[in-house]
Amino acid sequence: MLDRMIMRYVLGITVLFLLSSVNLLCEGTNGSKEDPCKDMRLVSRKEWNARDSMRMQRMHIPLSHVIISHTVTPFCPTRIQCSRWVELIQDMHLDERGWSDIGYNFLIGGDGSVYEGRGWLYVGAHAVNYNTISYGVAFIGNFNKDKPTQPMIDAAQNLMKCGIKLGYLTPMSEVHGHRDVACTESPGKNLYSEIRHWKNFKGGRLSMYYCKKLETPEVNKDILNE
């Protein structure tokens, strides 16, 4: 009788242990929410001291194109320097070009960080005819002279992976250089040579290639040529 009671007790403990293990396993696989952008270091608008946007137009997502540009400014190796250059670029786009905000959706710093411009949700002002159907990603520097570093390349590719996982980019989205959509040297020969090796790169002039002098926009209104 005593032996039977001990066996039942041991069996009960074993069942409880197994059930607890299954619950922990389920929580680890289904209950936890892994950050889809954990490999990307994002510097928010607030962190780089952005000015308020004057006007924003919502994107119709998901998109299938990413256009790579360069800022033709000095290279920035630290977050402090990159943040300051992003501020200055926004000032130029607002005050000199009359746009409603910084033109790019994201910028890539020499420190390996991604700097939030207009972000995933809002139309940029980086490539005439393609603003509403692409994300503009600008590498900070002049890549006719500078060479993109591995942390910058990783940051840009992790940004695109993040966009796909969050549903802002289609899984088969294409990468283009700015020169593929407009008569410009952007993103510079060194950066263009790099992105040509990316598996989702699609080179050559696109159908809405633009090569005309831009008109002066109205104050706080972007030139979209939709």
UniProtKB/TrEMBL annotation:
Q: Where is the N-acetylmuramoyl-L-alanine amidase domain?
A: 48-188
Disulfide bond entries: 76-82
Q: Secretion signal: which residues?
A: 1-28
> What is a single Pfam family found in this protein's UniProt entry?
Amidase_2
Domain of life according to the entry = Eukaryota
SMART domains per record: Ami_2, PGRP
Task: Give an example GO biological process.
Answer: peptidoglycan catabolic process
Q: Which residues form the Peptidoglycan recognition protein family domain?
A: 40-182
Q: Which CDD domains match?
A: PGRP
Q: Which family does it belong to?
A: Belongs to the N-acetylmuramoyl-L-alanine amidase 2 family.
Query: What protein is this chain from?
Result: Peptidoglycan-recognition protein
Specify the species: Oedothorax gibbosus
